[in-house]
Structure formats: C-alpha cells, structure tokens
Amino acid sequence: MSAKIIDGKALSAKVREELKKEVEELKGKGITPGLTVVQVGHVPASDLYIKMKTSAAKEVGIKDELVTLPETASFDELQETVEKLNKDESVHGILVQLPLPDSMKKKRVAEIIAPEKDVDGFHPYNHGKNLIKEPTFISATPRGVIELIQSTGEKIEGAHAVVVGTSSIVGKPTALMLLNLHATITMCNRYTVDLGSYTRQADILVVAVGKPNLITGDMIKEGAVVIDIGINKTDEGKIMGDVDFEGAKERAGWITPVPGGVGPMTVAALLENTVLAAKRIHNVED
Ligand code: GUN
Q: Where exactly are the structural domains of the chain?
C-alpha cells in the first residue's frame, strides 16, 4: 500500500479562506477580531513561528499585534502587559509565545491570560472544560490534528487511536479530544515497553515526541491514519518528523508529511480560535 498524503497546506488554505469570509461578516457587525502575541526576548525559531501566525492573521483580516518585552523583563512586567490586554476590548485572543526565558519557566504564565481570550487553550480552566467536554478553546495543535484526521473521511468513532507523547499541550489534549469523539484511546510515553505492540493496533496513530524515526514502517497497522507532530532538525538542517515517512507510507492508509502536515494546520486552528473568541465575547451565534 502507498499511503495517501494528508495535505496540511491545502487544508489550512481552505480553512483560512472560510475564515476570511467569517471575519468579513463580523466586520459588517462592527467587530474586528484581534490577536495579540506577547514575546519575551528573541528565540530565532519563535521569531519565525510568530511571523507565520501574525502574517496568517493579517491575511484573513484579523487585527494582529506583537508586543515584545526585553529578555530581562520580570514576570511582574509580563503579567502587567497581559493584564492590560485582558482588559483591552479590541483584543480577543492573547498568546504568550513559548519558550520563555529560564527565569519565567516555573511561573504560571497560562493563568495570567483571561480564559475567554486564551486562544492557545493552555489555561487550566480551559483544559478542565475540555476534560468535561464543555465549550472551550482546544489548543491549536490538537485542534489542527483532529481536523486533519476528519479530512480523510475515516471514522474516529469506535476507532482505536494511539497517541505517543503525553505533553499537556499536545499529547494529552489530543487524546482527550479523540476520546470525546468516541475513539478508544491508548496513550504511550517514553517508558512504554514494546511501543510497537501498541502502535501496531492503531487505526489512528498520533506521534508527538520529538525523536526522529521513532516510528518505523513495521510499527504501523496496514491502512492506518498516521499523524506526525514531530518537528526535528537534523545536523544537515533538514526538517523531519518522528515517523520514518518512507517506511510508514508503505503501510499506512493516510499520512501527514513533515513539513506541510500538522504545522500549517496549527496556524489555521489558532486563527479559528481567535475568531471564535471574538464571537463569544460579542455574543455572536456560531
Ligand atoms: N511555541 C511553540 N508552539 C506554541 C504554541 O502553540 N503556543 C505558544 N504560546 N507558544 C508556542
């Protein structure tokens, strides 16, 4: 079997096209969705991600803003900045770009953002809402992953979904969303013994670990939907995922490439959350 490619770029373009129309309609009602990204210091990779987010926001008509604090800013200064944005009626979505400088790593940054503007979905309140299946913001990557799976037309309900990687912002919320959509889920972590014995049972396999070639072709069930969230840079500067793409595509039914799979959908999902935030804040029916 040679897997069909799940084209994240094409799906993301389609989502953004639809968002453009929605933003246009909101503007007709006097509402311009606003997204503010707060950055502390400069991590080169973050600069690139932020540019992708703010340019995509602009393209669909969202008012974007970048607030950059110096590397030496204190947590109190960051909190003061975010609190101003919490109160600013022209801002509907707030995102504090990670990673933060080491001095802030142990601070509860997600908790300083007003939950109704937390378009990253990182606030414990929003994680909790997801847990009890109430309307919330689903973090951009998990939201994008679900949309990629749904785009294949393969059934989630009743499928066995195996998620490899248990981070609070990617693996856990993705597994929870799949569970909420009535999949049977198995979660694997770095301590899982005989990982392949689990992944080989997966109708849907989601991998978010950050280890190139962790998943080889023989670890994949024939016909599975494989979503590779890993972004790893080789010594030669090549970007690759956690799945051995060449081996995997001989067995999978569907597979996301890296780059061009999950990445573009993450940006689209963030924009969807921003529009959703604006609608909720202004009580516009979905
Ligand atoms: N850094 C890398 N990905 C993300 C993300 O989704 N949100 C934030 N805030 N920072 C990130």
A: 30-114, 140-262
**Architecture of the domain whose range is 30-114:** 3-Layer(aba) Sandwich (3.40)
Task: For tokens 């900045």, name the residue.
Answer: 81
> 114 CB less than 6 Å from ligand 1?
no
Fold observed for domain 140-262: Rossmann fold (3.40.50)
- Of 158, 136, 161, 137, nearest in space to 148 by CA: 161
Write the single-letter amino acid at 40. V
**At 139, is the pLDDT very low, low, confident or very high (cuts 50, 70, 90)?**
very high
Q: Average the pLDDT over 222-227 and give the result.
A: 98
Residues marked as catalytic: 53, 97, 120
Q: What is the per-residue pLDDT for 107? A: 80
- Provide the CB-side half-sphere exposure for 67 (13 A, CA): 18
Kindly give the distance from the C-alpha atom of residue 221 to the centroid of ligand 1, in angstroms, as a whole number.
31
**How many whole angstroms separate alpha carbon 254 and alpha carbon 153?**
11
Residue nearest to atom 2 of ligand 1 (CA): 98
Whether residue 1 is predicted with pLDDT greater than 80 in this model: the reply is no
* pLDDT at residue 69 greater than cutoff 80: yes
Mean pLDDT of 69-86: 96
Question: Is 68 strand, coil or helix?
Answer: strand
Q: How far is the CA of 97 from the centre of ligand 1 (A)?
A: 5
Report the nearest-CA residue for atom 3 of ligand 1: 98
